[in-house]
Amino acid sequence: MRPQSEAELAGIIAGATGPFHVRGGGTRAIGRPVAGEVLETGGLSGITLYEPGALTLVVQAGTPLAEVEAALAAEGQRLAFEPMDFRGLLGTSGAPTIGGVVAANVSGPRRVQAGACRDFCLGVRFVDGTGQVIRNGGRVMKNVTGYDLVKLVAGSWGTLGVLTEVSLKVLPVPEAAACLMIDGLSDAAAVGVMAQALGSPFEITGAAHASSGVDGHPVTMLRIEGFAGSVDYRAGRLQEMFADHPVRVERDPDRIRAGWAWVRDVERMHDAAGDVWRISCKPSDAPALTARLEAGTLLYDWGGGLVWALMPEGTDARARLGAFDGHATLVRGSEASRAALPVFQPEPAALATLSAGLRARFDPRGLLNPGLMG
Amino acid sequence: MQMPDPNPDVIARKARIVARLQKVLASDAVIHDPAETRAYECDALTAYRCPPLAAVLPSSTQEVSEVLKICHQEGVPVVPRGAGTSLAGGALPTADCVILGVARMTEVLETDYANRFIRVQTGRTNLSVTGAVEEEDFFYAPDPSSQLACAIAGNIAMNSGGAHCLKYGVTTNNLMGVTMVLMDGTVVELGGAHLDAGGYDLLGLVCGSEGQLGVVTEATLRILRKPEGARPVLMAFDSNEVAGACVSDIIKAGVLPVAIEFMDRPCIEACEAFAKAGYPMCEALLIVEVEGSEDEIAEQLGLILQIARRHNPLELREAQDADEAGRIWLGRKSAFGAMGQINDYICLDGTIPVSELPYVLRRIAEMAEGYGLQVANVFHAGDGNMHPLILFDANGGELEKAEALGADILRLCVEVGGCLTGEHGVGIEKRDLMSDQYGAADLEAQMAVKDVFDPDWLLNPAKVFPLDASERRRSLALAAE
User: What is the pTM of this model?
Assistant: First the structure.
């Protein structure tokens, strides 16, 4: 099914008798496999409103992300939350949609400074599991009018409703960027360096560490962005701060972009066999947690607050991690792994009850991506 | 302002309810003498008052849980209260309710500079959160005008903003986790020291839910390293339109000031008379503040001033030192006090798309004239969050007229693509206008969330939603007792 309008989508859901597998571009094949008729949002496409002077964009949910990014680039703006492209990691094809980005709350390296996708979502329209069209939020920067269902829907993977339109806050592309690189740090030392940088006044917009970089050796990366003079200044101050280490500074914009896309899209693990786990944790806990994991390859983003771990197929990473402040998601796993292990971190009983209650209210017949989140 | 009739059955059981509360709290933490409950009869929306059945001041999450269990069993509505600074009536009691104040829960539980967060009990005031980390040159970003007095609990309930949220975001963008007690006494942890949700983003849902989903007792807040410096520049223009266009151009140019504040002539005059900040007399003033090192500040201000000059400003005043910077902010910061000197006022909080600023300011002036009232505007222009101050004489019986003008202005905000409230919350003040912004299904979806968290509709039940929209749910809950 591929409705061409919100009204048609609402009609399809209202009259449905069986479950749907809701799909934007189909590039984020994450979660428990869903048995249901494919319901595509690609027919709901196009930019509804774009006001560069107000930093706001209203766009149909099925619009390809590339189209959104091109429109923004033409005005020197961008999605500051830097959404990850999952195609390489998951081996999927197709074109990611903006609705898919929001439904999965996909945020990249800049999350650590600018905020997550959900922080840039100003408003949504969606169709719930009864076929009702629901609006929440709007297109203004500050809005506390009623409950924030925008945040609830962002990251709900289409299980509470099918997004039809999203309003986003966008930001100007900065004039310049620099990337500082330190080679050879242990994971623990790297997390320390990143904490020190993130705790400085120099506005780090990316802090990542690969235990095995492009050349196979450990590399720690710090990104700064802004006006050229300011970038120069901060790069200098950071070099002073880390005078004990040999710091390389990259200023070429293309190489910086490619380097951070490598981090954002977890390129290190694209062609490597095994399951890929995504762990969200307190940054300083990361080294101890990963020591327990015994993973093959590790990539730390968000100063250590986000860890990507390549594990042998079928390994229960949660069993190795034990209890910790955060959660682990099995982002890439064989069907056997995904059938055997919960994809999303099981919630404590009281929260699971609330989540189930919300699902029962928004999708009482269990039609929308049933079971995807567990 | 209509409030539901108190439940006589609850009022009749007052003695028993108070006795049960006294069993789980310190004796001075249960306030039930009518002479003393009056201290809780209103918040900063002082036009409406009603003493509660009782007020309780628990000291821990455990005590909050005990209180809520009792109130849940007894079917007593609970109105959570931070510092009582709500301008929207978010903490207005009903005669059958227990006010649950978190004012005694002010401790810092943990500061973690390596991971950049602080964990506090939510009765702590906004400014004292920054106070707790200032020594290490860190700060907590959201800065509502009431930050000296307002509590983190209320900030979370209303998703408060402030002058500097153009750069740093509002409460929800700086809140990492909470400990919350549900109406039945269940304690839940949402979020923590990590950066995203493992399942549904319940933390994002709770922030801004006006104390209707649970009582937040502890919060993990993101703290940031202080910038090396900050400096404001003052710009005077001869029309609101030109000032509005200048704001838009600054934003578009890629500068991200930490604040862009706007004041119109009535506000400038009042502030000048009150604070004598030395503002130029003009139609519109902008205060734009940027941060960074000396050179970074100079670079940004250079660009901003270049943009401003294209709009033929009457005056551009760059702060040369801390003293001048202080004077530039002085008038703005005393705006509300200045207005209070002249008259009673209602402070609105509608937000509009920045591009609509000139039109909306013109329409507000026309509407005010129609009502024979004066409106002064002072607001966060960078994000379109307006604060029209409607001046009126309460003793002259002008309150109703002022409220009617306020409602018209808020409808105008919605009409141009904005919303009723940008940072103060709905409370009772904007409750009955919710239907102007949202359709029945939109409100139904929000109320369904409350059904999940508080099935009996006991937490702050008469707020946020128009009474007729929530009536069925509230009366069902009553009947179920």
Answer: 0.97
pLDDT in tens, B165-206: 889 999 999 999 999 999 999 999 999 999 999 999 999 999
The CATH architecture that domain B108-225 belongs to is: 2-Layer Sandwich (3.30)
Fold that domain B230-415 belongs to in CATH: Vanillyl-alcohol Oxidase; Chain A, domain 3 (3.40.462)
Chain A residues with CB-CB distance to B445 below 8 A: 128, 132, 134, 136, 149, 362
Q: Which pLDDT tens digit goes with each residue over A120-170?
A: 999 999 999 999 999 999 999 999 999 999 999 999 999 999 999 999 999
Q: Is A105 on the interface with B (CB under 8 A)?
A: yes
CA dihedral B409, B415, B418, B422 (to 10 degrees): 30
Q: pLDDT above 90 covers what percent of chain B?
A: 83
Nearest CB among B116, B299, B385 relative to A142 is that of B385
What ipTM was reported for this prediction?
A: 0.97
Q: Is A166 in contact with A100 (CB distance < 8 Å)?
A: no
A188 chain-B contacts, CB cut-off 8 A: none
Contacts of A56 in chain B (CB under 8 A): 353
| pLDDT at position B476 over 80 | no
Does residue A197 contact residue A241 with C-beta atoms inside 8 Å?
Answer: yes
Taking the Cβ of residue A236 and every Cβ of chain B, the question of whether any pair is shorter than 8 Å is answered with no
What's the gap in Å between the CA of B92 and the closest CA on chain A? 17
Q: Is B227 helix (H, G, I), strand (E, B) or coil?
A: coil
Q: Which chain A residue has the Cα nearest residue B186?
A: A350
Q: B191 is written with which tokens?
A: 């979020």
* Cβ A117 vs Cβ A83: under 8 Å: yes
d(CA A352, CA A333): 23
Q: Do residue B114 and residue A199 have CB atoms under 8 angstroms apart?
A: yes
Chain B residues inside the 8 Å CB shell of A136: 442, 445-446
- Comparing CB atoms, the residue among B186, B198, B383 nearest residue A142 is B383
Instruction: Please report, in angstroms and rounded to a whole number, the separation of the first and last CA atoms in chain B.
Output: 27
Q: How far apart are CA B182 and CA B204, in angstroms?
A: 16
* Cβ-proximal residues to B416 (8 Å cutoff; 6+ apart), any chain: B352, B353, B356, B359, B360
Q: Where are the domains of chain B?
A: 8-101, 108-225, 230-415, 431-480
Q: Do B225 and A201 touch (CB under 8 A)?
A: yes
Cα distances (angstroms) measured from residue A42 to each of A10, A15, A84, A122: 15, 20, 19, 21
Q: Does A305 touch chain B (CB under 8 A)?
A: yes
Residues of chain A found within 8 Å of residue B192, distances taken between Cβ atoms:
282, 325-326
Exposure b/e, A98-117, CB count within 10 A at least 16 = b: bbbbbbbbbbbbbbbbbbbb
pLDDT value at position B481? Answer: 55
In this structure, whether the domain defined by B8-101 belongs to CATH 2.60.120.1680 is answered with no
